[in-house]
Amino acid sequence: MTPDDTVGAPPEISVLTEFTDGVARLTLNNPRRKNAITLEMAALIGEFCDRVANDPTIGAAVVRSTGTYFCSGADTRDLAASSADPASPEAVRRTSAVYGAFVRVGSLPVPTIARVAGGAVGAGLNLALAADVMVVTPESVLDSGFLARNIHPGGGHLALLGRAVGWSRTVALAACGRSMSGTEAAACGLAYAAVPEPELDPLIAELTTVPAADPELSRRIMTSARLELGPPAVGWSSALEIERGVQMWSMSRKGQESWSSRGPGR
After folding, report:
1. Phi–psi pair at 179, nearest 5 degrees
2. Considering only 134-143, 223-232, 251-260, which range has the smallest mean pLDDT?
């Protein structure tokens, strides 16, 4: 391709979205930079989250990427610009925009699934950890990444790791520079499953089918899960009260007759 071939070509969309059959799908589309997240991408992720939050027909969300790498973190050009004066309002705006996008994903009212093929590093690992369920390939590489760049973790990185793998593995990853394969991540509970890449999409389809079929119930379960599991988590007695009213709602919706042993709702 010559430079003239690109004249007048439409700009590449850095985040692709799809909303079908009760499932919302967000795809990072910046493969030339290993799907590093730019400020534009952070804004588009926010718009996607707005759509999911406000559309009651959506019961599940998937975060994925094009190319061979899930996400290499925040765009290094933005990090470099912020490093010139980290305390400036502009630098704070940049980092807040990227990290705010992760918080939005992690606060969605539906179960979210991160499809991690290739690598998830730094802020890219934050994005994967923000999802409720992470599925990986055995060869996927999960790397804290901040230490390798001689900077402190950001975006709540330590809290996200800690709630998934506990103190020892968090320190090994974030403070000692260790990385983790997809196989290791699944073995310690950081990932839900590690399967060959051709099996990722069928697995995700299985995980999203039930919540997509009943978005209202899916959303109510996720509200209770976020209240109960936190962070911070609540005690058993509090969890009982959180669940009581919503379970009564689901039972009234189900109705008495559907409990028949001859019916599908037995």
Report:
1. -115, 175
2. 251-260
